[in-house]
Write the structure tokens for this entry.
Amino acid sequence: MVTVAPLQGWSYALHLPHDPRAPRVARMTLRAALDGHGMRELLDVAELLTSEMVTNAFRHTKGASSLRLRVVRGGWLRVGVWDSDPHIPAPFDKPPGGFGAALVPSESGSGRGLLLVRQLADSWGGWPLGDQLFGSGGKLLWFAVREPAGCVPGRAAVGSQGASEPC
């Protein structure tokens, strides 16, 4: 039996072709990485937000995109999605925090994905890249979510009553 020591930080990168299957492949990759590192408690939110961002990259650009998953000390998961369009869409064109009412008309059939990111992520942002990444410019949109306090990947957390809860 092989035992693997937990990593303090890790990252994975995935190049996605301009293909309607890209969001599913991105979700599967995220799920495998979080399952493999014992971080299932972040899965639901991270999977939803990753799917929204990769879907936007497919729907609103004509080229490939990239997904990067990164975990750092403290249990932060940061997900970045690069695409070839340098335009930063609202609401990512504004600094995080202090946002008001939704910018999407209630009768609209789309446009809520990035609002979900703003509402569910602990932190988020975006910036144009010029020719910095892959030599083709574009933009990077990202979000970060954090493991619950007291949570150690692969172990149970101790709740306020001293009982063990899933981490």
